[in-house]
Amino acid sequence: MIYIGLVVLKSQEDLDPHHVGSRGLASAPEPRHPPKNIAIVGAGIGGTSAAYFLRQEFGPGVKIDVYESGTVGGRLATEAIDGRDYETGGSIIHPLNLHMKQFVDKLGLSIRAEVPSKMGIFNGKELTFEESDWFIVNFLRMMWNHGFNPLRMHMWVEGLLDKFMRIYQYQQFSYSFSTVERMLHAMNGDEFLALLNQTLEEAMLAHGFSQTFINEIVTPISRVNYGQSVRLHAFVGAIALAGAESGQWAVDGGNKRVCSGLLYHSKAELIPARVSNIALKTRPSKSGTITNFYELNYVGDSGSAHSLYDIVVLATPLHLGLSDISFSGFSPALSSHFPGHYHQTVSTLVHGRLNVSFLDAKRKASDFFVSEISTTDGEKLGISSLSCLDPVHITPGYTRPPASQTAVWKVFSPEPLTEEQLKTLFISREHVSEKRWLAYPSTKHQSVKLRPSSSITASITSVLSSGRRQQWR
Ligand SMILES: Cc1cc2nc3c(=O)[nH]c(=O)nc-3n(C[C@H](O)[C@H](O)[C@H](O)COP(=O)(O)OP(=O)(O)OC[C@H]3O[C@@H](n4cnc5c(N)ncnc54)[C@H](O)[C@@H]3O)c2cc1C
Ligand SMILES: *[C@@H]1O[C@H](CO)[C@@H](O)[C@H](O)[C@H]1NC(C)=O
Ligand SMILES: *[C@@H]1O[C@H](CO)[C@@H](O)[C@H](O)[C@H]1NC(C)=O
């Protein structure tokens, strides 16, 4: 589950910082002058859903421009192989992601048909866990190896999600928060904040989970979801665990269709350009007060240009290598890069035949149906996960082939795969494509610093979520 943090630069001095918009509580002040024009930087799910909500909020009168330097969808992206599309970025959505549910309904999209899948855990030598077709077998195996740890983990995560769901109520009443910490505090007192102060491993040990369970089950979940071990901070770790719960889904035809749909529905104008600088300017208004506005400088196909806006929403991470926007005229000064860095996850799609003996020396490939393999820290080849992909649209009669046949596999790894690694993993390769993502914040605990400058409003508007079962495929 990933938050989309939006930084909103507002010029309307009469907007209450904690109650934005006209649908606020009865006591909330109505904005006297609705904005005339709004710029959104980034057409990922964050930017396009912002366009949708802002249109709802301010009606048809406001002009909404969405700037995108890459492709609409951002980290929701697909890749075509042999005439079919496959998800290469964010692929599965949590059942409690009510916004995505609502968008899919509103836009007339549908949920992708489910194909049963089997999960396995690879420790570098062998598969230490392999899901059976029978729920009771899985349950008894888990109980035998880990006692009540799995059940207790489920209850722990459900408890946290329950608190997290409060975000929808706050949003319904148009609350916003000036820092991420305040929002987390509003949802769950000090508990979420405390999770930011410790690693997932520390938090789980403190809750009485066993070290074996953490190494054998929790680590693979955190590796597949964040490419990182249980030393990431416990809040993000808990989000990874939420991704291991059942009921995860995807959008028929590709998750990025939600982004293009929202853009169309919101009647926003898409400007294919890279925003390079945002400058805060002031002008005297008729009533004698000073109003702020923003000058947005951008580079598009026809060169550099600028436009003026009342509100700018930054819907892209401001970390090094991701957006590179400079800010001028702000006091205190706004740095163009947020502290910390993004974790590289390389997503390699291979259309070919898996080398089953790498995973299990004794197994016949025609009997191998495990489709989602996550790894423990003992994995030495340098992969985080390996999964057999289904296309974004499931045609009637589709079944996933056994590993003896050619299929589309997705490998997540921290570094690009070498020829040597590919040779070990695959017996044959018809097509290989690689996408290097700066995927999610590298969340080693303590390196996270969530607080943006006090002059800006960070509000988390939407929650996407993680993997079907153990996996973000
Ligand atoms: C490999 C991978 C797997 C993942 N799996 C899952 C999953 O299974 N489930 C899940 O919930 N989440 C998953 N995620 C995370 C999820 O994809 C992201 O959290 C989400 O898509 C981020 O959306 P966003 O709109 O905040 O940012 P982005 O999608 O990154 O959008 C930002 C956009 O801004 C544009 N931009 C940047 N700078 C500028 C500029 N200066 N001017 C103009 N435009 C600019 C970018 O081109 C980009 O399109 C995964 C991510 C990756 C990379
Ligand atoms: C987190 O750690 C910081 C610094 O060590 C401390 O000031 C703060 O009180 C801690 N917060 C919680 C909720 O434990
Ligand atoms: C498959 O994996 C095994 C075990 O790791 C390895 O010895 C072999 O070289 C790999 N490649 C092929 C083509 O079998």
TrEMBL record:
GO terms for molecular function: prenylcysteine oxidase activity. It holds the Pfam family NAD_binding_8. It catalyses: S-(2E,6E)-farnesyl-L-cysteine + O2 + H2O = (2E,6E)-farnesal + L-cysteine + H2O2; [(2E,6E,10E)-geranylgeranyl]-L-cysteine + O2 + H2O = (2E,6E,10E)-geranylgeranial + L-cysteine + H2O2; an S-polyprenyl-L-cysteine + O2 + H2O = a polyprenal + L-cysteine + H2O2. One of its GO terms (biological process) is prenylated protein catabolic process. Its cofactor is FAD. Transmembrane segments: none annotated. The keyword Flavoprotein applies. Its EC number is 1.8.3.5. Keywords: FAD, Flavoprotein, Glycoprotein, Lysosome, Oxidoreductase, Signal. GO terms for cellular component: lysosome. It is found in: Lysosome. Gene3D superfamilies: FAD/NAD(P)-binding domain. It is an enzyme of class 1 (oxidoreductase). Residues 129-446 form the Prenylcysteine lyase domain. The keyword Nucleotide-binding does not apply. PANTHER family: FARNESYLCYSTEINE LYASE (PTHR15944), PRENYLCYSTEINE OXIDASE 1 (PTHR15944:SF3). Belongs to the prenylcysteine oxidase family. Prenylcysteine oxidase that cleaves the thioether bond of prenyl-L-cysteines, such as farnesylcysteine and geranylgeranylcysteine. Only active against free prenylcysteines and not prenylcysteine residues within prenylated proteins or peptides. Involved in the final step in the degradation of prenylated proteins, by degrading prenylcysteines after the protein has been degraded. This is Prenylcysteine oxidase 1. The lineage of its organism: Eukaryota, Metazoa, Chordata, Craniata, Vertebrata.
